[in-house]
Structure formats: C-alpha cells, structure tokens
Amino acid sequence: MEWFESWFDTPYYHILYSNRDYTEAENFITQLTSELKLPKSSEIIDLACGKGRHSVFLNKLGYKVLGLDLSRQSIEHNKKFENENLQFKVHDMRDIVDHEPVDAVFNLFTSFGYFDSEDDDRRVFESVSDVLKPGGFFVLDYLNENFVRKIIVSDAKVQRDEIEFNISKKIENQHIVKDIKFTADGRDFNFFEKVKLHTPESIQKYAEDNGFERIKIWGDYQLNDFERENSPRCINLFRKK
Questions:
Q1: What is the mean pLDDT of the segment spanning 159-168?
Q2: 203 and 98: one domain?
Q3: How far apart are CA 141 and CA 103, in angstroms?
Q4: Residue 167: CB partners within 8 Å, gap ≥ 6?
C-alpha cells in the first residue's frame, strides 16, 4: 500500500487539516469559473476530490460535477451530498475515467505529485486528456517548488482538538517529505507525506506530451500572476488542443 492510500483514509488526516479556509477556497473557485467563462451547462470532474468540499460548491454554482477520489472512506462520506447533477466515485487518478467527455477537470490544492514514478505522473495527464472534450480546460493547482524551498520549516507542533501532531519536513531527492507523529485513542501513530517538487517546466512537458497547451499560470488563490520566487502557488491552466 502506498503512503497516500493509508494516510488519506484515516480520520486523523482530516483532523490535521481541519483548519483549511473554506471561504478562500470558495472565492478561488468562484473566480476561477468566472475566468474560464464556463457556462452553467458545463460538466466538471473534481479529480482527487477528498471530502467533496469543492465538488459540492461547484454544484451549488450550477455545474454538473463528478467527484473522484482514491479514498473509499471519503467517497462514502460524500455520498450524502449526491443529487442528479453531483456524483462521487472511487477512482485512481492514474487510470482512465469511464465517463463521457467533460468540459473541465480540476485538480486542486496539491493533489498531484504523490508518485515516485514519472510514468505514473504521465498517466494522470493521459487520463485527464482522455476524458476532456477538445478545447476543454485542465486546472492543475500545485505548489511552487521555489517558494517551498525558501519557506520550509523543519520542525513544528500542531494542536488539533486533543491531538498534538509533531511534524518534521525535509527535502530529499526532489521531494518534500513530511513526517507526522502523534498519539490518539491510546495509540502512537507515524505517517508521512511525500510530494514531488515539480517545476513549472516539468509540468508543462507532461501537458504538452498529452495534447495540452498552457494558457496561463496564476501564483495564488486570488489569481494574481505567477512569480517564480515569490508566489505560494503554481496554478496551471491548460486547454486540450
């Protein structure tokens, strides 16, 4: 089992990241869909949807949405939100999506870069290209590797409810590795996260090899222009040729 298969399926993952700013995320998605001029008849795949917060909000904006995620627990949780225009399915982003072509695919909040193999990275772009209509948009919201290298904090303690998470970070073999230790429910736990430090150039190469053109990079969730040294995010907008 790969690290993300076990860690993402635990309740502690969601506790650790329970402070995520929903208002910022909703404002970002509102701006993004407006920028793309996606009509309300559009169908969007939320790839690696987690517990569905973005899928649900996109659906509230009027879009037809399919949320896909590898975590069975997350998808089971999301089923309560389903309606005629909002569905959730268990899916590995490396695999071809068994679905009619859609207008856009969103991969948000660093939900890429988990794989050791470059072939697996390529497979993600292949699967997205396969399920997009010609002219469809692929939004890949990723970390800015230069910015991460500048601000990395090696050790930190994070308190969430009754749990103290002890987190150490390091850069190793072009990955940022986060080691997470904590005690909960009378047990000691140790998980880790590992995300590849893809450059904008490496991401663009994957895209071009799979029939995409990059038409924009934003540097933050307010959709300001990307600055290699100072932008916290690298939000790529691709269009399928």
A1: 96
A2: yes
A3: 17
A4: 155, 156, 157, 158, 178, 179, 180, 181
Look at the pTM and tell me if it is higher than 0.85.
Answer: yes
Supply the DSSP symbol for 79: G
Residue whose C-alpha is closest to residue 165's, from 54, 49, 14: 14
Unique residue bearing structure tokens 């399926």: 9
Answer for the pair 102, 44: CB distance below 8 angstroms, yes or no: yes
Closest CA to 142 of 158, 157, 124, 154: 124
Q: What is the dihedral of CA 36, 53, 75, 66, to 10 degrees?
A: -20
Distance in angstroms between the alpha carbons of the first and the last residue of the chain: 36
User: Does residue 184 share a domain with residue 99?
Assistant: no
* Residue type (1 letter), 193: E
Residues 117 and 29 in one domain: yes
Residue 54's CB is within 10 A of a number of other CB atoms, namely 23
154 and 222: one domain? no
pLDDT value at 77 more than 90: yes
CATH number at residue 138: 3.40.50.150
pLDDT in tens, 194-211: 999 999 999 999 999 999
List beta partners, residue 223: none
Structural domain boundaries, residue 99? 3-144+199-240
Same domain, residue pair 62 and 122: yes
Query: What's the total number of domains in the chain?
Result: 2
Helix (H) or strand (E) holding 90: strand 86-90
Average pLDDT, the chain: 96
121 with 213, same domain? yes
Q: How far is Cα 179 from Cα 157, in angstroms, rounded to an integer?
A: 12
132 and 55 in one domain? yes
